[in-house]
User: Fold SAM-dependent methyltransferase from Actinomadura livida.
Amino acid sequence: MYERFAHEYAAHAEDSAYNALYDRPAVLALAGDVADLAVFDAACGPGLYARELLKRGARVTGCDVSPTFVDLARARCDGLADLRVHDLSEPLTWVPDDSADLVVCALALHYIDDRVGLLREFRRILTRRGAVVLSTEHPVMHWVRLGGSYFAEERVEESLHSDRDWPIRAWRRPLTAVCADFREAGFAIEELLEPRPTPEMAVRYPEDHAKLEVLPAFIAFRLIPA
Assistant:
């Protein structure tokens, strides 16, 4: 979905309120100390998380379905991360069992039809004491934006950004259903985080900061094998 506007999105996400000052700080906080860890960056996008993980001492592999994103990510990481073009709707056959200490999957799970299948792949590639850190759109935000029943489970089509023609297709699901997928795939929730905007956002993006102090846009989890 992102391939058509990959360069635009990459420039936007580098410094935007919701990416740079909301989701990335939350995901990286849940990841914790990654020094000397093998980290798999699922849906790596233009490499913004991978670059930071490398800076913090991780050994990074990963993938994205967009060839443009993978090219951008490789360049952003100076070739230090093993990043490949791969569709997460397909098994990670090239990733060995028990090879990742941590899987990071930022703002991508809601695009996947077979979420349990993907989560089971994450569990397969994790080491025994490994963890998955993922973020996704908060179900309440979906309900506020789209209306109808909060408990609806349906695929919706809309623009990723209200002011741009960036069409996406994503799943709208209640929190109960999201968490049920984790359990079915063999995970327990170690930590659940409804992020708060960073203080820097209040200075640079005061309107976004005010909105996110009232209503969470994303939700993040740290999952461990059950």
